[in-house]
Design a protein that fits this description.
Blueprint lengths: L3 E6 L5 H8 L7 E6 L1 H9 L5 E5 H6 L4 E3 L5 E3 L6 E5 L10 E5 L4 H14 L4 E5 L3 H6 L3 E5 H14 L4 E4 H9 L3 E9 H6 L1 H19 L2 H12 L3 H10 L6 H16 L15
Helix pairs in contact: 1-9, 4-7, 10-11
Length: 279
């Protein structure tokens, strides 16, 4: 297979897909490039990556540049436990207040905007900030964190018994729409897939096999996730039941529902269809 530059989100929610690849258990002709979602989004769109998990909202904005690979996503049905909004007061009381959103995320920031507008019916001032909960709350009334940053912050405030309202955006989205939430999908550059379709076939098969391998080695996943995040084993064990990596009809419908609200909120300019490799 042509050597592939493959993006890897550096959060434990991607670990089931990458465990075998990181340890060289399947192939060794892939260059893994790690980073937060926003960094990988930019690298892919700049042509510096061939395949990557991309924030769902960035797929919607750049669907002409990429094709979704089948059978892969970062999603959850209700609570996601790693997309959390921390606030001093309930979200319904934040009218006119300032909230900080992490610079690490695209999809979750758009999701928060949608929920404020269409679910909570509250207008707030958004400010981007580095993912540091204490620093964010020092200058605002709310803070959005994602991934390992969110999970560590939540664990810490529980231990400290801090009086903060913690809103799980996946749970809020489920209450609002009844749908799952798809935070990211794996994509390949359209130009590469069209020029070398066998590469798209091979990388799609490889990532799917890697996902199945990772999920079949749960204990090893939890140990590796603990080394990476320092979160307790029981928290990580539960999280592996919470986060999903499928792309069935349910996830596809959920993505289109999310895109529909993004369009209504002016976050994207057109309604979106899904282009999935092999279909």
């Amino acid at each position: 297979m042509t050597r592939i530059r493959l993006g890897q989100v550096e959060y434990i929610n991607c670990l089931p897909v990458y465990y075998a690849l990181e340890d060289g258990l399947l192939v060794d002709d892939i260059d893994l490039v790690k980073g937060p979602p926003t960094k990988l989004n930019k690298m892919f769109l700049d042509g510096d990556l061939d395949v990557t998990p991309i924030s769902s909202i960035e797929y919607a904005r750049n669907r002409d540049k990429c094709i979704i690979l089948p059978n892969l996503s970062i999603s959850a049905d209700g609570k996601v436990e790693s997309i959390l909004f921390f606030s001093r007061i309930p979200l319904t009381e934040l009218e006119g207040k300032k909230v900080c959103v992490t610079t690490s995320s695209a999809t979750s920031v758009a999701l928060l905007r949608i929920l404020f507008e269409h679910y909570y019916h509250v207008k707030v001032e958004f400010c981007r900030a580095q993912p540091d909960l204490d620093a964010m709350l020092a200058t605002s009334d709310g803070a959005l964190l994602i991934g390992d940053d969110a999970m560590r912050a939540h664990h810490r405030i529980r231990l400290q018994n801090r009086d903060l309202v913690v809103t799980d955006l996946g749970e809020a989205w489920k209450s609002f729409t009844g749908e799952k939430m798809v935070y990211a999908v794996w994509v390949i550059r359209s130009s590469l897939a069209e020029k070398e379709p066998y590469v798209a076939d091979q990388i799609s098969k490889l990532l799917y096999e890697s996902k199945l391998f990772g999920l079949a080695h749960r204990e090893a996943l939890i140990k590796k996730a603990h080394r990476q995040s320092q979160l307790p084993y029981d928290v990580l064990d539960h999280y592996l039941d919470t986060i999903h990596h499928d792309l069935s009809e349910d996830e596809r419908r959920a993505m289109l529902t999310y895109f529909d609200y993004a369009y209504k909120s002016g976050i994207i300019e057109e309604r979106v269809k899904l282009r999935i490799w092999g279909e």
